[in-house]
Amino acid sequence: MDLAQIGKIAKEAKTELGSLHTIRKNETLLSAADNLVKDSKKLLEANKKDMENARANHMPDGLCDRLLLTEERIEQMAAGIRKVAALDDPIGEVILEKKCPNGLVIGQKRVPLGVVGMIYEARPNVTADAFALCFKTGNAVILKGGSDALYSNIAIVQSLRSTLESEGIVRGAISLIEDTSRETTTAFMRMNDDIDVLIPRGGAGLIRAVVENATVPVIETGTGNCHIYVDESADFDMALDIIFNAKTQRIGVCNACESLVIHEKIAREFLPLLTRRLGEKNVEIRGDERAAALADEIVPATEEDWGTEYLDYIISVKTVSDVTEAIAHINKYNTGHSEAIITDSYQNAEKFLNEVDAAAVYVNASTRFTDGFEFGFGAEIGISTQKLHVRGPMGLLALTSTKYIIRGNGQIRP
Amino acid sequence: MDLAQIGKIAKEAKTELGSLHTIRKNETLLSAADNLVKDSKKLLEANKKDMENARANHMPDGLCDRLLLTEERIEQMAAGIRKVAALDDPIGEVILEKKCPNGLVIGQKRVPLGVVGMIYEARPNVTADAFALCFKTGNAVILKGGSDALYSNIAIVQSLRSTLESEGIVRGAISLIEDTSRETTTAFMRMNDDIDVLIPRGGAGLIRAVVENATVPVIETGTGNCHIYVDESADFDMALDIIFNAKTQRIGVCNACESLVIHEKIAREFLPLLTRRLGEKNVEIRGDERAAALADEIVPATEEDWGTEYLDYIISVKTVSDVTEAIAHINKYNTGHSEAIITDSYQNAEKFLNEVDAAAVYVNASTRFTDGFEFGFGAEIGISTQKLHVRGPMGLLALTSTKYIIRGNGQIRP
Prior knowledge:
2 copies of one chain form a homodimer.
Chain A: H1 3-19, H2 22-38, H3 40-56, H4 61-67, H5 71-86, E1 94-99, E2 105-112, E3 115-120, H6 124-136, E4 140-144, H7 150-166, E5 174-176, H8 182-188, E6 197-201, H9 204-213, E7 226-230, H10 236-248, E8 257-263, H11 264-279, E9 284-287, H12 289-294, E10 298-300, H13 303-306, E11 314-320, H14 323-333, E12 338-342, H15 346-355, E13 360-365, E14 382-384, E15 392-394, E16 400-411
Parallel strand pairs in A: 3-4, 3-6, 4-5, 7-8, 7-12, 8-11, 9-10, 9-11, 12-13
Antiparallel strand pairs in A: 1-2, 2-16, 14-15
Helix pairs in contact in A: 2-5, 2-7, 3-7, 5-6, 10-11
């Protein structure tokens, strides 16, 4: 199918998908989960082709691991779909209802966004995930995955589609763009007549390309240049534990800590403890002049370091003279994701919470908690770093809009 | 000031504006209103220059009227600012607070968007309006008004700025882009580092240009190709009153009715009544073949008519065989603004409310009610026709985002 046809069937599916009863959606999701597992052999064969191509193209190990499917991972994909089936259905919820003086009754109801376009990298699990979340919220989804995962994605979408067909669900509920050329991808981002929202998920380059080229409204998700500021009054043990957790527990994720900001008055005492602790995982530390002078293990940072999301065993260190300077530094270089202060000062904690401009701001806790599951949403389609529509971890509600429903008996405007 | 400087001072003003106490914001708004009235003479002089240029450039009467300032209109601008001062301040409101099993307390708080960019046409009242709404919600605003209103806008912004200065408010709270060239406007739409949201207000051409060129997130506002569907079971008197109101009460507004959809079984009886009623205001009626055959006054419509927002004494008429066909027609040609059904059928009313895809859907009432004041928001910065962030009339809440505030005592992610 070409792009225009894909857009057309998705748009045509909107009315039917938006009206599906919750029971029917949940039953369909449970069947889809079962059938994915039944289709394991086909999925693994398709994935094997992708893996062979990836290795031939010298894809880095980390990316190969994200691309790989196993029996266990297919079971996890199915479990993820079943979890979405178990969540409350937000569609149709009445948020507001009021009677106007002229007798008009104005209600506001949660409705699907309509058609959601997803652009992502070579991670086949996102294919099943995105379908489940969009279907549960009554949205049609058009998927454009990374070309390296094409065979895997085709197999997953085929499995999901055959479930939809046997459940009598309209075909446009899920589509995959198989032509992964740049021209087609750009055209996809500009289909304002058919697509209501675009959600890019992936690295900084992919997000930037979508923001630059899209005319369809975008929900910008998650690059995270996350900071931890260690205030003068910080408990050192707590600070070390939190930094160690936020930097090293999982280095490739957007809520990992990439940069430290340290109050100058404690730097001399704290930095040697820090280098020892991060040394356990061989973390490279790049500091400003003052920091580098205080510990041999700290190498000099350049201006570029302050803005870099390493996603690696590297961290930068900036020293500051007070919380105000710390906030200014963070607001200059952060990506609006997650920022933390370690302090025992009420005043500095409140100032930091109020003035740091980010989706999630922490006092005395690890930035690693910014996550849809940790926040109790039961699902996550990404982490929004923009301020429109949704900010922070996105669960099912992020995939909904609202609609005003007004009931009258002949009212006209005077 | 050049564009880069304007962006810089607005961004720098964010922290201070976001932390202003409500009392201080309200006092500043009340002073601004008083000072605008005191500066009337300067405003009228500046406006006179704009009006002279406009007339020399043969600006149409309707647009000249929107550009014109009078003592009374300046009083109205001031009254609008005072109304905004009287509204509740949404900033800082805690929407959610919960304690996690590990002791973390997660709160979600309303915060300003940050820097709002407004792009609009030659309507000086929008300048004062936009400032008041953005200032009340702790946002910095950068204004780019139509070049035909430049002198008026400069005078209004000067008056507002001198109030801000005497109240000790940071300078970047309001800026006006005086260079109205296309290059500068395009560069303005792509200042992602400085601007959080762009709101275009104006005709379809302006909105399209912003959607096409902006990389900053946009809230698309209001072209309205609004329909009224007269169902088989409609009360004719009610239908005629509502159509007359929605078409003719004010023709230049986005919630005016532009197109009728009529059930074929009542067309023969209803259309002659309709032509008589709309004839009172000399409304031109363009119909499909079936409609044109039923009344001499109805001229043939072309395909282009179905998608046209006339903003004039013209209306199109399409006949359909049932509510399903009516909904399909509306979902094909509407702009997602306001749509109404006139019916006495419970089933058709519910079907229409559920399946028509628009910001506001009405049963037995005029589309003219889609308005921030009518909906009880006490203010309006525009009417959103997109599904992200806000849909329908936008009050103060539309100018806010949220932020997660997480308080811990050393929590790390296991």
